[in-house]
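Dissemination and training. As part of the outreach component of the grant, students in the summer workshop were shown how a complex can be specified as a set of sequence lines and then modelled as a single object. The example used during the hands-on session is reproduced here so that future cohorts can follow it. Participants entered these lines:
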Amino acid sequence: MSDHHKETFITKYIFSMDHKMIAKQFLITGMLMAVLGMLMSAVFRVQLANPGESSILYSLLPGSWVNEMGALNPDKYLALVTMHGTILVFWVLTAGLSGTFANFLIPLQIGARDMASGFLNMLSYWFFFIATVVLISSIYVQGGPASGGWTIYPPLSALPQAIPGSGTGMTLWLISITLFVVGSLLGGLNYIVTILNLRTKGMSMQRMPLTVWALLVTAILGVLSFPVLLSCGLLLIFDRSFGTSFYLSDIIVGGEMLHNMGGSPVLFEHLFWFLGHPEVYIILLPALGIISEVISVNSRKPIFGYKAMVVSILVIGFLSFIVWGHHMFMTGMNPFLGSVFTFTTLLIAIPSAVKVFNYLATLWRANIRFTPAMLFAIAGVSAFITGGLTGLILGDSALDINVHDTYFVVGHFHIVMGLSAIYGMLAGVYHWFPKMYGRMMNKNLGYIHFWFTFICAYGVFFPMHFLGLAGLPRRYYTNTAFPMFDGLSDINDIITFFALAGAVVQTIFLFNFFYSIFKGTKASQNPWKSNSLEWTTPIERIHGNWPGELPTVHRWAYDYSKPGAEEDYILQTEPLKEGEEEH
Amino acid sequence: MTNILIALVVLLVIVSLVQLTRVSELLGELKNEDVNKVTDNDNKTQGVLFLIIGMGFMGFVIWQMIEWNHLLLPAAASLHGEQIDVLMKFTMTMILVVFFVLTPMLFYFAYKYRGSKNNTAYFLSHNNKLELIWTVIPTIVLTGVIIFGLKTWDETMNVDTSTAKVVEVYSEQFKWTARNSGNDNKLGNSNFKLVTAKNALGVDMQDQNSLDDQLLREVHLVVGKPVLLKFRSRDVIHSAYLPHFRVQMNCVPGLLTQFAFTPTKTTKQMKEEEGEDFEYVLLCNKICGAAHYNMQMSFIVETQEEYDEWISSKETLSEKLLTQKQ
Amino acid sequence: MNLIQKKSLKQLLWIGIGAIVMFFAGLTSAYIVRKAEGNWLEFILPDWFLYSTITIISSSVLLIIARFYINKEKPIIQLILTTLLLGVLFSYFQFRGWQELTMQGVFLTGEGSNVAGSFLYVITLAHLVHLLGGLIALVVTLINARGGKYTSNNYLGFELASNYWHFLGLLWVYLFFFLKFF
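and obtained this result:
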């Protein structure tokens, strides 16, 4: 077999080049950042429910963020929403989701010993780690962290005179994101090359589980779109630190007339959203891939329409590059351009709908086993339906006029990302925990975690649609400045209540996760009776994944309840019987 | 204070649940049972929960729609806004129908097909005809939505502005200033380099068109008459959001943007319909700094006579900037 | 190292190159969009950039020759060293080009600058930074070649370094013609 290098604590747990360990590094870091991001949202939700009042939660913040009365400073409210968005979009839903599951599943599900380059893979985590340290450090600098929204539009993000967080905090944000993107790209390279080259004998592309397809397309999206964010950021760095005028022009701020001439903030928006839109599909596709897997295994039925599901992943991936303008309908763009983007955006609804119908068809006449993972997978489909539908309103330029940048948008993207994608991630954690740690998570705690989360999450985000249709803008420190919003305070209270309750409920999951790593009941070889290759590796997990020869694959991953079979599942390694046809 | 107590109670509840579960796991180990195995009973419970909580979710949605309907924005007070409202009703109805069909179906399937040891799933891997149907039908529906949407967008964006009254709306951290174009309906040129304390909008007083321009703290519009709002920004991106008129447009430093519309209801009329407290208002809708939440300017829609009377008392820029004052 | 592993490493490089291409695509698209908006200083690209273009093309030619030499088991140390030196010469020409630009009054930033100049500096600087990586790779291959590492059966490291170097050359040629004629 391959190398028998001597393992030390450092090479096993710190600078590991084993994809399974790297996956867990991404997972733990992602989870910790999720806690941080969620705490931030708890803090700013408290401000929204009790505007201008002090709160015990503010004691978590740096002292300079509250005034003498103990109330949160308005610019620090913006710092919180900025960091919340940054952490959740990039750190949790990109690194925590792709980083974990691409690293963990790809070699295992295609029958490879490890990724194409364990070294690059190790680097990808450590770039991510350093990016994390830099980002967290930005919280404690004098002006505070970046505060221009996670979308960091200049001139606001370029000028410390416009908001304090645009000083050192923003510089650190840019450094952090650069490191993050480099780490992501290093990972993405590996995922693509490994899937293309290291599939085991018999594992044709058409026999790969949907999870692998989704992760492949995701990695391609990343390679094509993240570098543009770097070019966007590079020009911003020059504007901020070297006095160029790529994005800045005609500005008087803080009493000072700036010399910049000829720049355009809209150019930034184009470059940013060229990544920004594929980014949300980089978040969503792996989650949908996981949901496909979990639903199929726990329905004891093949995922319905495997080919259609693959095609829809490819179409969504392709279309995701030509819809970015729908984030910019209100920038004064040429109306014709607006029409083009409306057209392409509404098109993307078609493959998304196809996926939903295929999920429903998978559940039809199934024999459902409700593991906690399955609960989250089904909830993920529900959230995808709910959130996806409101996308049809936002993607329609004429309708976007009145809902752009209101709570309607906030509700939409939280339901598709904060619910659907996170549910996919949680389903993945519950489902593959036995493989990751050789132990089972507690089922009942999982059930409790699920139902309270499901209720609280819809309780937080569904009401936001009404706030948006009432004209309430997002990123407002308080809603008390305009009499027209006075009637909305009850809704705000309800949202905050569910937000705090939901945050508290996640402690059940955190306990379950960490407790089970050490004290969970030992897992059996294939606790979910799943067909895919990862369940044929030893429970204790070894370097190189399989002790002897690599497995040979004879069939696709979805022979569940196949007529004529002894059990309701057939491993992919099982040769076809006499007269048996492959699907 | 109550919040803290509630939080503490919840925490204690969670801690107890956790301890109970640990105990059950240990007991299970003693009895050699797998406490984490999903049993038929579990499937029944979870399936039923999906049905009940699913219905609860539907009920919650309907409750919200009924309870909070009165909080939504009133009907549009502009010509293009009326078209947008029609499109919104159409699209919203469509997505609600789809939502109320697909979501109950999902939860019902979860309930109906809850598993048991004696059951077998039906091995059906694909059906190409079905794929075709549920690709073609959404495509047709979406084509209709797209065409309707593009038509409305075109009507909103491509309006004849030749007779529109031109008003500039200037944004900065953290207030709005308006500039009326005066009798010539032409705004004088402006340049940020000309900004002074008195000439806050940097208007070029050498330009003849500037002389009759007027700086305003609130904007008055004549009902039924088109207005062309032109937007500028002093410092960062702001966004002019006039929700009652279905108007929104970013204000970008270094760029000129605009939006034309025709108001259809006077403020007085709106007060009768919506209550004495009603005001048309301009909000900032793009994160712009600490006081982003408090950039407001009033818009008043009135009759021509009322407008003429109001504007006649306003100082022109030539009076403000060029006349020598004591 | 088996064939699949070799193939994988080469593919890793190509996809990485793809990412770098997208980075420059972002910069050049921004250039195109901004130029269309007007207020764009026109100036003549200093000849130094032509010299650097010729230099980097020559350096690639040398590496191609080296590739053939490896197959014939002939020594390639001199070729790699010369390529490396040409790479350094390229960098020198870029600096001279920037110098001349400032004499022409085209600056990266400051009161008298125009965004056309800013773009030029940023794009060429970005390329040079990536070239630095290429120089490091060449140094590594030089050391390995001196150690006799490359044989006609196994020259993966050389191949990777030279593929990257050829990419840098092609990228520069694209950027050069783009900046000169667009």
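The radius of gyration of chain C is 18 Å. Students were then asked to discuss how this feature might be tested experimentally.
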